[in-house]
Each structure stands twice: as structure tokens, then as C-alpha cells.
Write a structure and sequence with these properties.
The protein is mostly helical and 178 residues long. It has a domain of 86 residues: Arc Repressor Mutant, subunit A, CATH 1.10.10. It contains seven helices and three strands, in the order H-H-H-E-H-H-E-E-H-H. Strand 2 and strand 3 form a beta hairpin. The two termini are 39 Å apart. This is MarR family transcriptional regulator. Keywords: DNA-binding, Transcription, Transcription regulation. One of its GO terms (molecular function) is DNA-binding transcription factor activity. InterPro entries: HTH_MarR-typ, MarR/SlyA-like, Tscrpt_reg_MarR-type_CS, WH-like_DNA-bd_sf, WH_DNA-bd_sf.
Length: 178
């Protein structure tokens, strides 16, 4: 797909100018922040989607596979997947159903909790997520579009936003293994 030609002005800067012109000065910076982050998310997700397309994976499916591959046993309770990915249980359930249908994970009863389900990575799921991770590392993560310093600063700023929103408490220097 050909990249569109750049616009002669930044539409988000123009939106901020309009906010200020309409007297919404208290909200102008926040509007610029929110719309800028949302546009950046669109740009990054487009790159991720294009990289994962040959693997027939959405980012949601990739995240579940990668999380299971990172776990010690290649399996986690459904509730742990929900908590770690910070998405609604229905989303994880429907994603897991598609991964089961495709033979990439199995859904098994939890060995200690009869009410819980365990998601288990299959060998074909492990092979696929490893290949997809290599592609994402090469095509997206190694060069996300910002310098290392800018990327680190942005991650730190967004981490403060996430912490203040209740995503997590003070992080440990090294997260414990799953």
C-alpha cells in the first residue's frame, strides 16, 4: 500500500487552534494529547497488523499466544490472561475460542479449580508465535519510529498515566516470571 502524501499542516495542531479559537482553552491541551495518542496508536497498530497478517493473527490473538509462551508451563488460567492483558473477560474468551478452533491453544479444566479454565499453548501455537515475534521484532519493535531516548521518555510518561489510572502499583525493577 502506498503511503499517502503528507498534509501541508498538522491536523491535530489545527484542531488545537480551533479549540483555542472557540474558547475551550482549559481543554485544548488535553484534546491535543488524547487525539495525538490515538493517532499514534493507529499508526503503530497499522504496522503491527501488516506484520501479523501473513501469520493470520490479530494483535489480540498474538498477545494471548505470546503470554502463554512466556509462562513457565505454556499455560495459564483464563483469569490470569484476562488480568495480565487488562481486557474484558469476554474479549479473552472469544479470542481463546478462535485460537482453540485453529489448534493454536487448547482449553483444559483447571487442575485445582473445577470452575476455572486453563489455556494451554499447543506446539503449533508455540511455533507460530515464535515466527510472528521474530517478524514483529524485525519490522516494528526494533525501529518503532522514535529514537531510543524519545521512546524511553514516552514509555515513562505513559507509564505514569497508566499508574495514575490504576493499571498497576509501583513496578518492581524486574517483573517476576509468569
Amino acid at each position: 500500500m502506498a503511503r499517502p502524501r503528507p498534509l501541508p499542516i498538522d491536523p491535530l495542531a489545527e484542531a488545537k487552534r480551533q479549540w483555542l479559537a472557540h474558547g475551550w482553552t482549559d481543554a485544548a491541551d488535553g484534546m491535543a494529547l488524547v487525539t495525538s495518542v490515538m493517532r499514534a496508536q493507529q499508526l503503530l497498530l497499522a504496522r503491527v497488523d501488516a506484520t501479523l497478517k501473513p501469520f493470520a493473527l490479530s494483535f489480540a490473538r498474538y498477545e494471548v499466544l505470546r503470554l502463554l509462551a512466556f509462562s513457565r508451563a505454556g499455560s495459564l488460567p483464563l483469569s490470569s490472561v484476562v488480568a495480565r492483558l487488562q481486557v474484558h473477560p469476554t474479549t479473552v474468551t472469544s479470542t481463546a475460542e478462535r485460537l482453540v478452533r485453529d489448534g493454536l491453544i487448547a482449553r483444559e479444566p483447571h487442575p485445582h479449580d473445577g470452575r476455572a479454565a486453563l489455556l494451554v499453548l499447543t506446539e503449533s501455537g508455540r511455533e507460530l508465535v515464535e515466527r510472528a515475534t521474530q517478524a514483529l521484532n524485525a519490522d516494528v519493535f526494533a525501529q518503532p519510529g522514535l529514537s531510543r531516548d524519545d521512546a524511553a521518555e514516552l514509555v515513562a510518561i505513559v507509564a505514569r498515566l497508566r499508574k495514575d489510572a490504576g493499571d498497576f502499583a509501583d513496578p518492581r525493577p524486574q517483573p517476576e516470571a509468569l
